[in-house]
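Entry type: protein chain
Record version: 2
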Amino acid sequence: MSIEIITTGDGSHSLLNTALNETYHSRHGAVQESLHVFIQEGLDRFLASGATTVAVLEIGFGTGLNALLTAQHTEEKGVTVHYTSLETAPLPEDLWVQLNYTTTPAAQTLFHAIHQAPWNQSVAVRPTFQLQKLTVSLQDATLPTAQTDVIYFDAFAPNKQPEMWTYDMLAKAVQTLRPGGMFVTYCAKGQLKRDLKALGLTVETLPGPPGKKEMVRGVRSV
């Protein structure tokens, strides 16, 4: 696997896929990007309704950063999470163990538990965090209809992985959303917004994380 660890603008690590010349997270700041796009504008916006349980579907497990932040954030709030993540190329342990996303022994234990959880089965990583990591592509996955509250669409960028951003793939993800469910991504391309609108979502163009002007959130009508 042609992957290198790099340090981003906020001091946190990302990974560089040298074959694609594409990073797993923003070079301007991996943690701050994930917090802004997926936690603040996705998870928190959904939980603002008063929900005490949330089902998350992540497209691209990658470094496990989004899963870690979600587990930490919801544990603090007393929210129960069912977290499903798709990933066709899981990282080897000698790589993910070097990532600097944790600053306390408790956080490190949680991060290790998330990565060491068996693939292709549902595991209670914490009493309030049920994790299912699947080694399958979005193209090949069999996904439930109307059972997801928040989609973290975190595939590589459209110019690097265009097959992930087609109308058909977006439709496959969106059909998993319950009414009121949210689709969030760092991408803000016009074609993406047009496709999400065509799929029936109310689309918002929001301020992006540091270093990126915009991001997108789509909400399924209640």
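Comment: The chain has six helices and eleven strands.
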